[in-house]
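Why this split exists: single-chain examples teach little about how molecules sit against one another. For that reason, every record in the complexes split bundles all components of an assembly together and asks for one structure covering all of them. Below is a record exactly as it appears in the raw files.
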Amino acid sequence: MASRACIVKIGGSLLVDARSYVESARNVLALASRSGCKPIVVVSAARGVTDLLIRASEGDEAALAAAKELYEDIARELGGTLANKVVEELGRLAMIVRAGVRDGATRDLVLSFGERISKLLMVAALEHAGARAVGFNADEILITDERHGDARVDFEMTRALLEKAKHSLEGPDYVSVIEGFVGRARDGSVTTLGRGGSDYTATALGALLGCDVYLVTDVDGVFTADPRLVPSARLVGLMDYGEAYEAALRGAKNTNPKAFEPLLAFPGPDVYVGSWRLMGTRITGKAGEVPEGPKLLTLRGDEITVIGRGMLRSAWASKFLESLETSGADVVEIRGGGSSLSARVRYPGELPKLLALVHDALLPRG
Amino acid sequence: MSAPRRFAVLVAGFGSVGRALARAVAMRSKYIELRHAVQLKVVGVVDSRGAAIKPEGFTDYELLKLAELPRGGVSSFQGYGRPGLNAAEALELLSPDALAELTPANYETGEPGLSHVLAALRAGCHVVTSNKAPLVKAFARIMDEARRRGLSVRYRATVMGGSPFMEALLGVRSHEVVEVRGLLNATTNYVLTLMQERRIDMGTAVRHAQAVGVAEADPSLDLAGVDAAAKLVIISWTIGRPIGLEEVRRRSVEGLKLEELLGALARGKVVKQVAYLNPTRGEAYVEPVELEASDPLASISGTTNAVKVVTDATEFFFVGKGGGGVETAHSVLDDLIAVALGGGHG
């Protein structure tokens, strides 16, 4: 296996049943071999599990049973010694829920089982696919503040732990797997990192270890606009950290902007976003590699935002405002900063139509 | 820079501390080798059903995989498993430099830990332990055996398992320790804190503590104060004024009702299970006590432990984590490194 490490984060939409765990395992190995890097896999919970656990943490027995059944089925199919570990962990989960203490720390602990068990299943799936794999515990490596439900990584403490764990995590003859979304506060309690937390785990590890990150999901990358609203939307090939952060802030692709904070703090790695089939978008920190100009648009409520380095330059800004006016919109409010410019509008038609018109004006094909 | 010194360890007991130790060794081996010139090798792991042994020492990968096995499963470890092999036999087979004795405490007989410790010493191995029972039952005997053979017995992990408290205590060897007073049991402190902060009854608090792994399936040793009393005994031996476990007056917290705790709170007091030792007066107890809110111990919450030590020359207040699996494992690891580097008696 290659000496360089890379982080490969697998989204929950791709983890549904035993077959998809093994398929993801095979895909990780293929991606790693194609890119020539040694993969450190970050897993999300299986699809739907987090929502079930949120309800379970409030005492919903049916939700708890559903989550248990989902994971038990996958474990049984994958077999091996880890299957027993999964059953053990599910037993622990039930005990915690039934003990009946309801507070932020306990809720986080309950939620963490989603990712932790997913990690065990991924280790089993990788072994099934013929690789050697080892699970690592996020709560032994990722230290956070005490903000339960939306914790922030403590980079100093985490970096210190990673220094020592590095040679194990980057071990040359096995694949390391670690759960996303989960960390540990200084007081010892388990914390969760908020919506999109697994992306945040992946970028935090990538930033601190200085290695590239692959965020694998069920679409081919970041699009120039929501393809459901704008038929002419296409992939954004290249963006920089600032653009990606702003895009997330303005609601693009349901990514939590927190996921880009580690990269802004410790720039270096490239982040690839896409599917197993195609890593369509590369997000880079190298200054100057990304040209100025619009990269994508978002629509939130009555606000259209265009993201791109240099959008506040008069040439780009006026182009944006012009396209809104030409399309028949009244601009009610403008705000911007960094790599984005937003306009709140009044428009006689459907806003997605306006979005498409502005999109085609700013990002013409060819 | 000297060549790293190879140090082989047999681990007896593979519960949460044993597993955490295997993981800690795997993840820190390079760091320990670079920083301390010690090449720590786990050459065997023994649990209740058998052992896994590898004289050359398990690789980091193998240690991490061992830690993933179900309870009682080491003898099924691919290629290295030896069903039914016990610690004494493993000691004979491997002749390690040290035994890490991590089996559960049995205060009636001290077994199997006591036999493990004595077998190790007789086989010429140093001993590092997190198991209090052998020390409580036979401290003098163990230390004599060790002394006669020029071996080390270290037990920092037995008291305030997550902190180097024993080092602090050993650091005042020229003093006469007058008083030791503190909160020495993580489980009890966690349960009492939870009850008072969340206003829940003991049953619920204990169930929650069990669920999150802070209380054992049978928490009575902790709640009744036996664990804390055992720690006082070990402290007493360490400061050279030994007492026996039966000399520690104990009152369990199990009888406490939520109303009593809340009543105390209303009067500005906090109920804690205090462990106390006064060697000159020959007084030792582990009992629930109503503390003034201003008492430094009153603000120690959750699984944190704290001890005030008063000597004839100084006093210090030591606050630190109690023994979770990971913290205790690190204490064991630190003791192993100390022995490897040539540290002396416990």
